[in-house]
Amino acid sequence: QLQLVESGGGLVQPGGSLRLSCAASGFTLDYLAIGWFRQAPGKEREGVSCISERGGSTEYADSVKGRFTTSRDNAKNTAYLQMSSLKPEDTAVYYCAASRSYYCSGDMEEYWYDYWGQGTQVTVSS
Known about the structure:
Blueprint: E1 3-7, E2 10-12, E3 18-25, E4 33-39, E5 46-51, E6 58-60, E7 68-73, E8 78-83, E9 92-99, E10 115-116, E11 120-124
Parallel strand pairs: 2-11
Antiparallel strand pairs: 1-3, 3-8, 4-5, 4-9, 5-6, 7-8, 9-10, 9-11
């Protein structure tokens, strides 16, 4: 069974940090671009970041540039989203997704991705 499983979410204070993980089972992430998305209550899902198959290229939404970093460890079949300087407006369910394309689309839209995780909740609150 092909699965992506996110972990690492939780409750954090403003200014804090979290690292999300996205682990694949049933398939390899080696040749796939990995995206991170989020959906806040009452809002549409939005793209947060993307990393190409070997990590040589990354993209970020303007709202997270300089605060979030995406990475991957293909040997562990896992991708990561390091989130720092978190703000209350970062509160959302975060999803990882994998694209059969090895590169990022440039627009971080959902159509680019073929496999999705179930999401992990991130809450930024004091």
